[in-house]
Amino acid sequence: PCLLCCLQLEGLCSFLQLSTCPEHLLVHFCRWLLALSPDLSYTSAAILAEQLFLRRVLSLSQPPSRHLMAALASFCSKYSQPFCRVLVAAVLREPGQGIEQTKLVCELVEECLEPDCVQLVLSQVLEVPLSEKLLPVVQAVLGRQEVLPPKLFDLLILTLCRQASAFTTSLNYTKLVTAVLTIYQSQVR
C-alpha cells in the first residue's frame, strides 16, 4: 500500500474519531470490517488495530468491558498478525503498563489467537527483558500446548536459563519452568 493510502486511512480514522468512539459501536464497526471483501491489507489492518485499540488498551486501569473484549476478539479472528505486531508489541514495550494489559494479552493468547500468532507473541516476549509482569504471558502461551518451532523453543530455554538468577524468589518463574518441563519434556535435553 502506498504512503498516501496509509495517510488517508489514518486521516479517516481521525475524522471518524474511531479511537474514542463508544465501545458498543466499536463492536459493530469490527463486525463490518470482517464482512469487507476483499480483506484489508496487512498495513491497513495494522493502522486500524492502532487507531481502534491501542489507546484504549494502554489506558486500561480495570478489566476491559465486554464490548471491548468482543471487538478485540472479532478483530483478532481475522487480523491477528497485524494486531499482535501493533498492540501486543506496544504492551510488551511499555514498562509502565499494568496488570490489566497483561491479563488482556493472556486472555487473547488463551482464547483468540491462532497458533502462529501465539508463537509470535512468545517471540515478542523473548525480545524484551523478561520481567515478573511478562511471566503470565509466557505461561498463557505454554498453556496452549502448541508445538513450538525448535528455534523458538531453544530461545525460550536459553532465556529462562540466562535470567534465572533474577527470579530466585519468584513463584511465577517456578511455575513457568515446571510447565516447560512438563509440557515439553520430550524436547528438553
Please characterize this protein's 3D structure.
By secondary structure, the chain is mostly helical. The chain has a single domain (3-147), classed as Serine Threonine Protein Phosphatase 5, Tetratricopeptide repeat (Alpha Horseshoe), CATH 1.25.40.480. Helix content is 70%, strand content 0%. It is built from nine helices and no strands. The chain has helices at residues 3-16, 23-35, 42-58, 66-93, 99-111, 115-126, 135-143, 150-162, 171-183. The protein is elongated and about 55 Å long. It starts with a helix and ends in a 6-residue tail after the last helix.
Can you lay out the helices and strands and say which pair or pack?
Blueprint: H1 3-16, H2 23-35, H3 42-58, H4 66-93, H5 99-111, H6 115-126, H7 135-143, H8 150-162, H9 171-183
Quick structural summary:
InterPro entries: FANCE, Fanconi_anaemia_gr_E_prot_C. This is FANCE protein. This protein is mainly α.
